[in-house]
């Protein structure tokens, strides 16, 4: 994989930060949800955000 330029690196960091923020917020929403179906939706969405963040992080390690 070619090296990332400064703009690509900045965009990647922004995306990683956005997914981390989504993960944190969705986890908070899940912990506050009373309805089990809503809780499950928030929990799955939080996990999806975390998974995407982790995939994006692999670009920084190459």
Write the layout of secondary structure elements.
Layout: H1 6-32, H2 36-60
Assembly category: single chain
Overall 3D form: elongated
Q: Specify Rg, calculated over alpha carbons.
A: 14 Å
Q: Would you count the extended β strands for me? A: 0
SSE ordering: HH
- The helix content is over 70%
CA(first)-CA(last) distance: 8 Å
Could you tell me the strand content as a percent range? under 5%
Average pLDDT, rounded to a whole number, is 93
Please tell me about this protein's structure.
This protein has 62 residues and is mainly alpha-helical. Helix content is 84%, strand content 0%. The chain contains two helices and no strands. It has helices at residues 6-32, 36-60. The longest helix is centred in the first third of the chain and has 27 residues, at 6-32.
Keywords:
0% strand; elongated; 2 helices; mainly alpha; 62 residues
Summarize the structure.
With 62 residues, this protein is mainly alpha-helical. 84% of the residues lie in helices and 0% in strands.
